[in-house]
Structure formats: C-alpha cells, structure tokens
Specification:
This protein has 2 domains: about 110 residues, Immunoglobulin-like (Sandwich); about 110 residues. The N and C termini lie far apart (about 95 Å). The strands form 4 sheets. A 5-stranded mixed sheet has the order 5-7-3-1-9, with no helix packed on it. It has a 5-stranded mixed sheet with strand order 2-10-8-4-6, with no helix packed on it. Strands 14-11-16-17 form a 4-stranded antiparallel sheet, with no helix packed on it. By secondary structure, the protein is mainly beta. The protein is built from 1 helix and 18 strands. β16 and β17 form a beta hairpin.
Length: about 270
C-alpha cells in the first residue's frame, strides 16, 4: 500500500509542476526596446526622400513616452542632410514609427552619407533594457536617367581584346533598359567568338584589341537601366562610362564582376 501512495504523490507533484506558468506583466514588467531593422539604404531624388523604421518596446503605459536617440560618432552625415520625427510612443502602444527624411541638396554629389543612430532611452519605462543594435542609414543622391548618347571608352592593357567570363572572349558589358532593350558592348577577342555588338565586326586589329569606343542611345522616358559587367579573366580590362552631359558617370578597372553603380546625377 505504501508503494501506491508514493507513486500517487510523485504524479501529483509532476502534474503540479506542469501546470505552473509564468505570466509576463506588460505594464509593470521589465521593458525591452530595439529597432526593427539594423540598416537601410535611402536613395534620394531631387524632391527628397523618407523612410521609416519601427521602435519596439515590450511594455505599455497609459501615457505617452518619448524615445531618445543619439547620433553615433562614426556617422558622416551632417545635420542638414536629414531630419527625424515620430519619436513619441502613444499611450497604450508597444512602440512607434520613426521617420527619417533626407535632403537631396545637402547630400554629397558623389558617394554616400552615413548616419548611425543609437537608441538611448524610452521615458516612463521600468527597468529598461536596450538591445545593442544601432540603426545604420546610408543616404545618396538618386537622379533620373539622362536620355541621349552614352559613350563607353574601353581598354585592354595586354592588347588582345576582352576576356570577360571566358578565357576565349566571353560576354560583354550589358545595359538592360526598363522596356527590355539590351545593349552589349566590348572589345573583340581573337581567341574565340564574343557575344553582343563588339567592336571590330568580328575581326581584331592591333588597335581595337587595345582600346575602342562604343556608343549606346538611351531614349527619352527610360525609367530604369541596369549596367552589368561579367568579369575580367586576367585583370586587364578597363572602361569609363561617359554620360550625355560629357561627365564620367561610372567605370571599372580590374575589379570584381557584377552590377555597376552609375551616377545619373552627372
């Protein structure tokens, strides 16, 4: 009989432990706070741009709370290049949406301005714990595509034309417009066939194996253009891209293959 009593006692203790639950107090408990994302790119057209990021907190109160942020010393963005708003958590809410706006005129003509924000405080919150994850924003100018003739000046330091994604020639630099039009240009190679509209009409001469110029025409109303370079087998290839305004808008020399960033502001 004692053995049965012992088994029942153990089972009762086990069931009691199983039913024990912990209830988090969302009003008086510890407050955790963090940004919803860690990094954002902000392309900025002439009229300016805005982006949003949520700030989450794990508790709520019956009154408004203020979110405090500080600019990290590693930031390169200046105060005239951006504005912040939305730093108030409404009563009864578990967070707020922070809005960051960028100013085209104040941004650098080339490169990017970097803004790093640290979450510092949430007023009226109990035992606040902030997740150590700053918000990193990169602002840069975004201009509409300039219609007209784009010139690509191409070189090969060895003088035997381009070998891109193949040791015997390969694909060329491709420009794909939003309407599906594709241009492909490059220096001819004497070692094999090369795709696209290459200089030399399939025959290489001493001159067009070392350097050459191609021109493509981007029509009015083009909303997008993707520039892609397939690669450089031997580290010999170079080119510069000249906009219809006569400015160097992009280029490449012995770098990794991939999408090219074109500065349409030029």
């Amino acid at each position: 009989m004692k053995k049965y009593i012992l088994i029942i006692a153990v089972l009762f203790a086990f069931v009691s432990c199983e039913e024990e639950t912990i209830v988090y107090d969302s009003e008086n408990g510890q407050t955790l706070a963090n940004f919803s994302v860690s990094s954002i790119l902000v392309p900025t057209p002439t009229e300016g741009a805005s982006t949003t990021v949520d700030v989450f907190v794990s508790t709520k109160t019956d009154s408004e709370r203020t979110i405090s942020v500080e600019v990290d010393p590693s930031s390169t963005a200046t105060a005239d290049q951006y504005t912040l708003s939305g730093l108030t958590i409404p009563a009864g809410a578990f967070g707020a949406t922070l809005t960051i706006s960028s100013n085209f005129d104040a941004l650098p003509e080339e490169g990017r301005a970097n803004l790093v924000l640290n979450l510092v405080d949430v007023s009226g919150s109990n035992d606040l714990v902030i997740k150590d994850s700053p918000l990193n924003l990169e602002f840069y100018r975004e201009c509409p595509i300039t219609a007209g003739d784009w010139v690509i000046n191409m070189t090969d330091s060895y003088g035997d034309g381009w070998q891109t994604d193949s040791a015997t020639g390969g694909s060329g630099l491709t420009i794909t417009l939003g309407d599906g039009t594709v241009f492909e240009v490059g220096l001819c190679s004497p070692y094999g066939s090369a795709a696209g509209t290459f200089l030399g009409d399939g025959e290489c001469t001493p001159n067009n194996g070392s350097e050459g110029t191609a021109t493509i025409t981007i029509p009015e109303g083009t909303e997008s253009a993707e520039w892609f370079f397939p690669g450089d087998q031997y580290g010999e290839i170079g080119f510069e891209i000249i906009s219809p305004n006569g400015n160097v808008a992009g280029g490449y020399e012995s770098a990794d293959a991939g999408a090219l960033t074109i500065d349409y502001c030029k």
